[in-house]
Design a protein that fits this description.
This protein is α/β, with parallel strands linked by helices. It has 15 helices and 15 strands. Strand 13 and strand 14 form a beta hairpin. Helix 9 packs across helix 10. The model has no long low-confidence stretch (mean pLDDT 93).
């Protein structure tokens, strides 16, 4: 299968100019090994059964011999030969002028505590499942980063032909590269289901070789899926599990930690400026799956289900968009946050660049919700402006001033065209979005 260029490739290009070794991490099946292979002249695969014994013998007795191969060199499943880490680290120390010579990839279910960190020598890049732009289901006509960075950027009239029915299938299939090699739709849907089963049956214990209860893990994933893209408190999520399982909060906290280390679930942090001095910021984290297909598999649902449950699909669609935003943010040194206060003011996502510029983003399924989302974003912006005006009234004792948003954006599932409203809010169909 022909290699599909990934957004993370640009980040890897930047890192290889500054570091001699790159460790690519991320969820199982997201394409880490394939992406690294495209960059390397020598591939050392420690799980190649025909060469495994020989590779492991060399790795144990004289791992430096591997470094004599033509570079760049990929060490796949390097956790099976842990001396490789220290060998590469020392080579980076001995040859500080060299860059881009080594890549490491491995299974997220194998946690290795190396004797020495790779700080300053081995850089770490996180890879996620494929975005809609990478799978070809977004035509990429609208660039999120350009909206934030370029006030003159005009994408009005950009068309999307992606339908809700297609999105129902896409969220169930997920962004797993393996799916693109399969022809039958039913076969594509099996990939996420299999990943889900492996997570609670095998990976949750394999990550640190501690036996864990698969049923507790399965029920925990189900509860997280019921609360996908919400700020539900852990006490609520754990209560779901404890309703049928005899397990403590301490144990469930440990299971959550391992699911995060496996890149299965992820929390989106809150943006917490005190723009209203007497308003409580709800700084709870928003819970998402690294790919919504895992959550859907945990719920036991298929694409047809969402025809009659658009409310649930709204949460799943938000998770899908947040997944793509995380990929875009990784490529542009940005952060993804969210905001909610006790008056109901909110932003589903905040895309914050490293120079401080940011966009307030609302995520909606139906185009009929765009006016409501627009008003919410305008209210948010106006509040920041009013806060800044009040904060600078006393020049002798000015209070904190917050940067105004560079863009107000509504990302919509079934909008057919990208455009800018009279109030300057950018309407972006998901079928046009790229980094």
């Amino acid at each position: 299968m022909k290699y599909i260029r990934r957004i993370v490739d640009e980040e890897l290009n930047k890192r290889k100019e500054a570091f001699n070794a790159i460790n690519i991490i991320g969820p199982k099946g997201c394409g880490k090994t394939r992406t690294a292979k495209e960059r390397c002249n020598t591939i050392i695969e420690f799980q190649d059964e025909e060469k495994r014994d020989g590779y492991l013998a060399v790795a144990e007795t004289s791992p430096k011999l591997f470094l004599k191969n033509k570079k760049p060199i990929l060490f796949d499943e390097w956790q099976d030969a842990t001396k490789i880490w220290g060998t590469i680290r020392k080579d980076c120390d001995d040859n500080p002028e060299n860059v881009g010579e080594y890549y490491l990839t491995g299974s997220s279910s194998k946690k290795i505590n190396t004797p020495h960190t790779g700080t300053g020598r081995i850089t770490e890049v996180t890879m996620f499942p494929m975005t809609l732009w990478e799978t070809g289901e977004s035509n990429g006509l609208i660039s999120l980063s350009r909206i934030v960075e370029d006030e003159t950027y005009n994408f009005d009239g950009s068309m999307s032909d992606l339908t809700l029915e297609e999105l129902f299938f896409i969220v169930c299939r997920g962004g797993w590269p393996r799916c693109l090699a399969l022809k039958r739709k039913s076969a594509k849907l099996e990939i996420a289901k299999d990943y889900y089963r492996q997570i609670y049956q095998t990976d949750i214990s394999a990550i640190d070789k501690v036996k864990r209860n698969p049923e507790w893990a399965r029920t925990l994933l189900w509860s997280y899926a019921r609360n996908m893209a919400t700020k539900a408190k852990k006490t609520k999520i754990f209560a779901d599990v404890k309703a049928t399982q005899n397990v403590t909060d301490v144990t469930l906290d440990n299971y959550v930690e391992k699911l995060e280390e496996l890149f299965v679930i992820k929390d989106i942090d809150a943006w917490t400026p005190q723009i209203r001095s007497k308003t409580a910021i709800r700084s709870g984290k928003k819970h998402i799956f690294v790919d919504p297909s895992i959550g859907i598999a945990a719920l036991g649902l298929g694409p047809e289900y969402f025809i009659n449950d658009l409310d649930l699909f709204g949460h799943i669609f938000e998770n899908l968009v947040l997944r793509d935003l995380l990929v875009f943010a990784e490529a542009h040194n940005a952060r993804i946050l969210h905001y909610t206060d006790d008056t109901g003011l909110e932003a589903d996502a905040i895309y914050q660049m490293e120079d401080g510029r940011y966009a307030l983003i609302e995520i909606k399924t139906g185009a009929n919700k765009i006016p409501e989302a627009e008003q919410s974003l305008l209210k948010f912006r106006d509040l920041i402006i009013k806060h800044n005006e009040a904060a600078t009234k006393n020049p002798a004792h000015p209070k904190a001033v917050y940067r105004e948003p560079s863009a107000l954006i509504v990302i919509c599932a079934n909008a057919s065209m990208g455009y800018t409203t009279d109030n300057g809010v950018k309407i972006v169909p998901i079928g046009c979005l790229r980094d």
